[in-house]
Amino acid sequence: MYINKIPFMMTTSRAIHFGTAEMIKNETKSTIIKSIRQIIDTYHRCGFKIKHVLGDQQFECIRKNMEAQGINLNITGRDEHVPEIERFILRVKERTRAIVNTLLLDILPNRLVIEVVYNAMFWLNCFPHMNGIHAKMSPHTIVTRSHIDYNKHCKLQFGAYAQVHKQHNNSMLPRMTVAIAL
Q: What is the DSSP letter of 175?
């Protein structure tokens, strides 16, 4: 997926509906393998074993690496896409667009765009999916085994202006600086 020409590796699982997004510096074989390895490790830590990976033609280059790990790589035909991830990408872009349009900024630095995508992904994973494997547990809770804490995760809205403590001495210089909550 691309947002403002920034490439992201996007994944979602069919049963759990846990989505991931990772900004990648390029689309080389080694970068794709590293990114997929991190995602597989995330699932392994919570006891899930990845057996199948669906992808488009771009992922053909990692077939041997996947087979070496005992994972079946299923690649779509030419000019075809995996429907689940395409719908998921549309949902993430929709949420990202909604957040960006609430910000009072004319120019968005790349780091801010990346954090908007991560924020959208975090909140999409925080609520149970209607077709998920559990009616009350969110994909975030199932995979990371952590719960959302109101005091930690809901103090500030994304993009809100905030004043944060700044290192200071005993002079009359400001002790706070302005920031944007990410």
A: S
92: Cβ contacts below 8 Å, ≥ 6 apart: 1, 10, 19, 21, 117, 120, 121, 124
Residue type, 23: M
The C-alpha atoms of residue 130 and residue 111 are separated, in whole angstroms, by: 32
Say which residue the tokens 């590796």 belong to.
9
pTM of the predicted model, to two decimals? 0.84
**Longest C-alpha distance within the chain, in Å?**
67
Alpha-carbon span 22 to 1, nearest angstrom? 10
Q: Which domains does the chain have, with CATH numbers?
A: 2-148 (3.30.420.10)
The pLDDT assigned to 143 comes to 87
Would you call 130 exposed, middle or buried from its count of C-beta atoms within 10 A (0-12, 13-18, 19+)? exposed
For 91-113, what is each residue's pLDDT tens digit? 999 999 999 998 888 888 999 99
167 vs 169: CA distance, rounded Å: 7
